[in-house]
Specification:
Radius of gyration: 27 Å
Largest sheet: 6 strands, mixed
Number of helices: 12
Low-confidence stretches: 1-19, 21-27, 221-226, 335-351, 357-365
Number of strands: 12
Order of helices and strands: HEHEEHEEEHHEEHHHEEEHEHHH
Strand order of the largest sheet: 7-8-9-10-11-12
Mean pLDDT: 78
Helix content: 25-40%
């Protein structure tokens, strides 16, 4: 499935409205699960003591929780529930936390099971173990295939071919690459309506991971930055190579996701353009690249990227001058130098329309 999600904006002026709505929901016996479930992306330089401080890490809410709490996405009979999913910003090591002011939340245990089911790495049992795991050295999986900048911030895209990784076989680094592919699948459950995880028993998958390059102190690293590199995961995509009898293939883009804090910044167009180029280069026998059940937002993104590719590869197509007003009128009424004479009565119809337009203009004035 293919989301190209609208960003989740926080409007300080509406915070009171949101709080009042939440209180009303709790009085009616439920709380909106999307409002009290929070993802935290924590870099390795943030201490545990400052983890909860505003601005200390990247936070955002899920788009969908009806898979766990029903169509209304409400948590019933619990006072002030709070669910937090902590992720290491680079390696995606995780920790799940649930608190409430009342009794234990059965749905909280259910959510934890969901996280455990769809996380290739089980969430760490304690915050201290999570902190220990996120301090371990990290390098992005796969091969670096593209680097670009946005507003003096540097971003990189890495590629992992599952089949090639398994053919190399056995190495710890190779297993880590497959593991990282699996870790991304939990986001599908929370951000793709009706999304499902992919089958890793198949070898024809190619993954693309999107990262922001960060500086040693955890801040954004510009294109001219120095020192040791760090990375923050911002999204991913994957493509499956379907064979086409007798000797061709038809690659299909299966999942495409940018995390909410990084949407509407041009990363989607940059990544999709790169994926088209990579897939066409790696699959000379491909007849086309399809998209699996794209959303309207993704269709708009794909149309934009296709237009930019046409502009790059067929620039003459975009150099044609727009039709003049006389050409448009000739096209409208079927006349013109190469169009022959007007049909019988057509000239009278044209004069009547022009007189009507003049009359409307006078009434408007």
């Amino acid at each position: 499935f293919f989301p190209f999600f609208l960003p989740l904006h926080f409007n300080a002026s509406r915070g009171g409205v949101k709080t009042e709505r939440r209180k009303a929901d709790e009085m009616e016996g439920g709380t909106r699960a999307n409002d009290v479930t929070t993802f935290h992306f924590v870099d390795r330089h943030t201490s545990i003591s400052s983890m909860e401080k505003e601005g200390a890490n990247v936070t955002f809410h899920p788009k969908y929780t009806h898979q766990h709490f029903g169509d209304d996405e409400m948590i019933p009979d619990i006072i002030q529930p709070k669910m937090d999913l902590y992720y290491s910003a680079d390696s995606l090591e995780s920790y799940f936390s649930f608190t409430s002011a009342g009794k234990e939340l059965p749905a909280g245990n259910s959510m934890k099971k969901v996280v455990q089911k769809y996380s290739a790495n089980q969430p760490q049992p304690s915050m201290s173990l999570f902190d220990e795991k996120r301090q371990q050295p990290f390098t992005p999986p796969g091969d670096l295939v593209h680097t670009y900048t946005r507003c003096d911030r540097t971003f990189e895209i890495y590629r992992v071919d599952v089949k090639k990784v398994r053919e190399r076989g056995g190495d710890v680094a190779d297993l880590r690459e497959i593991e990282y592919c699996r870790r991304t699948q939990l986001f599908v459950i929370f951000f793709i309506d009706g999304g499902s995880v992919i089958n890793f028993d198949e070898d024809e998958w190619t993954f693309f991971f999107f990262f922001e390059v960060t500086s040693p102190n955890g801040g954004s690293r510009g294109s001219g930055g120095g020192g040791e590199k760090g990375w923050t995961f911002i999204g991913f995509s994957n493509v499956y190579r379907f064979p086409l009898f007798p000797d061709k293939c038809r690659p299909r883009l299966s999942q495409f996701l940018l995390l909410p804090p990084y949407q509407r910044q041009g990363h989607g167009a940059e990544a999709l353009s790169l994926i088209f180029e990579q897939v066409s280069t790696a699959n000379a026998d491909a007849i086309e690249m399809t998209v699996e059940d794209p959303s309207p937002e993704f269709c708009a993104l794909r149309d934009y990227v296709d237009a930019k590719r046409l502009q790059r590869h067929l620039p003459s197509l975009f150099l044609l001058p727009p039709p003049s007003s006389s050409q448009r009128k000739e096209s409208k009424y079927g006349g013109g130098k190469s169009g022959g004479g007007k049909r019988e009565g057509e000239g009278d119809m044209q004069r009547e329309e022009e007189e009507g337009e003049e009359k409307e203009g006078e009434e408007g004035r």
